[in-house]
Amino acid sequence: MTYHNLSLHTDKYQINMMYAHWKNGTHNEKRVYNAFFRKNPFGNGFAVFAGLERIVHYLQNLKFEEEDIEYLQQQEEHYDPAFLEELRNFSFTGNLYAVKEGTVVFPNEPIIRVEARAFEAHLIETAILNFMNYQTLIATKAARIKQVAGDDLLFEFGTRRAQEADAAIWGARAAYIAGFHATSNLRAGKLFGIPTVGTHSHAWVQDHDTEEEAFEKFVSVFPNNAILLVDTYDTLRSGVPNAIKVAHKAKKEGKQVKGIRLDSGDLAYLSKQARKMLDEHGLQDVKISASNDLDEQVIMHVKLQGGKIDAWGIGTKLITASEDPALGGVYKLVAKEKNGMFHPVIKISEDPNKITTPGVLTFYRILDKTTGKSHGDYIAMVDETVPKEELKMFDPVHTYKQKIVKNFEAVEMLQPIFINGKLVYELPTIEEIRKYHQESLSQIWEETLRLLNPQEYYVDLSENVWKTKMNLIQKYRKETNDLE
Ligand SMILES: Nc1ncnc2c1ncn2[C@@H]1O[C@H](COP(=O)(O)OP(=O)(O)OP(=O)(O)O)[C@@H](O)[C@H]1O
Ligand SMILES: O=P(O)(O)OC[C@H]1O[C@H](OP(=O)(O)OP(=O)(O)O)[C@H](O)[C@@H]1O
Ligand SMILES: O=C(O)c1cccnc1
């Protein structure tokens, strides 16, 4: 895939802050930022991290071309030519740590940590959040759909309804990571190695004198994999009977109609009737697929009503994450360098959920060695040793809620991706990511995975992190009181 240089894919305030740092001589000081989200989308109990591959390519290709420099010069009269010269030599030289794509993640944990010169850390915020927020959102929506679909096949059909081309292909990839089986977008298929799928549209049927002729012609060119759309005129009176006729004829000629597609009406009723009609004609091997504004709710209800659908094609509601269209992930400064050392910094808010967790942080998934399931996640300083035998886990807000965990394995979730600007991580294949996602899901109790009112997963702080946070809150509270 050719990756375009996206250096200007940032907000102007980032370049302004880079400029202000440069003018003040602080641009080479190191900063630490964490990317995280505060709330699971769709009322879900978890999210599925995606976007890392795009972030890796973005950082590898990050440079200011001559035309970008010229454009910046025109945009802001204050930019000093010597600053623009500095941009000419720009590349990402920092460290980036991230969880693996496909990981089940939770609110408020640092899923990406950036350690870089203030100059670089500012520039990359916007693009990192752009990639992480969208792809994680779609992977999460896809995981919800996957959960209700069971063993049924899931096809991603969203491109025509997606918010432009990038969203279509990266959304198709995110859906595949979360367990979809194929996409209708050939470019996504080619770029990422996702299996592709295609039926035909209503236009194909309208284009012929009769529906039967349309089906026959289609089967004649796709003798073993045609899926016939049966709802153009009347699903049960015309579409299904014509498909049956054509399927019989095909059989006699050594061909095979692979399936039919329902795209309107009551999908439970129509699929049950269609299955009955097909079976009565000995066509048990003709599968039924469905589409039409599907999401996890409709799929679940159609299945509860006894619908006989083998494959689901999902477009609009997946690719636009229609009922919750933004993840809201943020990138916050958590430590800054002074005299060669990192010092934790905090952002205070009236809303306790918006107070950041300071320090150079990592986090661990605390897996029970007997069940293989997670007790929760544990955020600690990178230089902290996590106890091996007994771990005290406590709720960081209601601290009296605590438990002592034994017989566990603490798995560090953040992986080094770039060290001193060098890529040190081998990007996994899409199949490896998809498999890893299932493994990650299997470590979470089903009470947290359920679609409706899931049990909240514990994301706890080490005592050290908690104390650092409380001390900083006290410090700022005291300073503010002193001012009054
Ligand atoms: N049995 C069902 N239970 C719950 N929802 C369903 C069922 N069958 C279809 N739906 C969903 O209901 C929504 C509306 O379907 P409806 O039949 O009203 O519209 P339509 O079929 O698109 O209409 P039209 O026939 O005019 O194209 C769609 O999102 C569809 O997926
Ligand atoms: O409903 P979605 O989840 O968004 O899935 C994609 C939709 O796109 C197609 O319809 P469209 O009316 O665009 O074209 P068609 O003529 O092929 O039906 C397809 O038949 C699906 O209904
Ligand atoms: O192949 C299909 O049936 C398809 C592809 C894209 C959108 N709707 C349907």
UniProtKB/TrEMBL annotation:
Domain Nicotinate/nicotinamide phosphoribosyltransferase: residue ranges: 155-354
Molecular function in Gene Ontology: nicotinamide phosphoribosyltransferase activity; nicotinate phosphoribosyltransferase activity
Ligase among keywords: yes
The enzyme's E.C. designation: 6.3.4.21
Gene3D superfamilies: Aldolase class I, nicotinate phosphoribosyltransferase
The UniProt record lists the keyword Phosphoprotein: yes
Keywords assigned: Glycosyltransferase, Ligase, Phosphoprotein, Pyridine nucleotide biosynthesis, Transferase
Stored InterPro entries: Aldolase_TIM (IPR013785), N/Namide_PRibTrfase (IPR041525), NAPRTase_C (IPR041619), NAPRTase_N (IPR040727), Nic_PRibTrfase-Fam (IPR007229), Nic_PRibTrfase_pncB (IPR006405), Nicotinate_pribotase-like_C (IPR036068)
Domain Nicotinate phosphoribosyltransferase N-terminal: 8-133
Pfam families recorded: NAPRTase (PF04095), NAPRTase_C (PF17956), NAPRTase_N (PF17767)
Pathway the protein takes part in: Cofactor biosynthesis; NAD(+) biosynthesis; nicotinate D-ribonucleotide from nicotinate: step 1/1
Post-translational modifications reported in the UniProt record: Transiently phosphorylated on a His residue during the reaction cycle. Phosphorylation strongly increases the affinity for substrates and increases the rate of nicotinate D-ribonucleotide production. Dephosphorylation regenerates the low-affinity form of the enzyme, leading to product release.
Functional description taken from the UniProt entry: Catalyzes the first step in the biosynthesis of NAD from nicotinic acid, the ATP-dependent synthesis of beta-nicotinate D-ribonucleotide from nicotinate and 5-phospho-D-ribose 1-phosphate.
NCBIfam families per UniProt: NAPRTase_put, PRK09243.1-1, PRK09243.1-2, PRK12484.1
Name of protein: Nicotinate phosphoribosyltransferase
UniProt organism field: Thermolongibacillus altinsuensis
Taxonomic lineage of the native organism: Bacteria, Bacillati, Bacillota, Bacilli, Bacillales
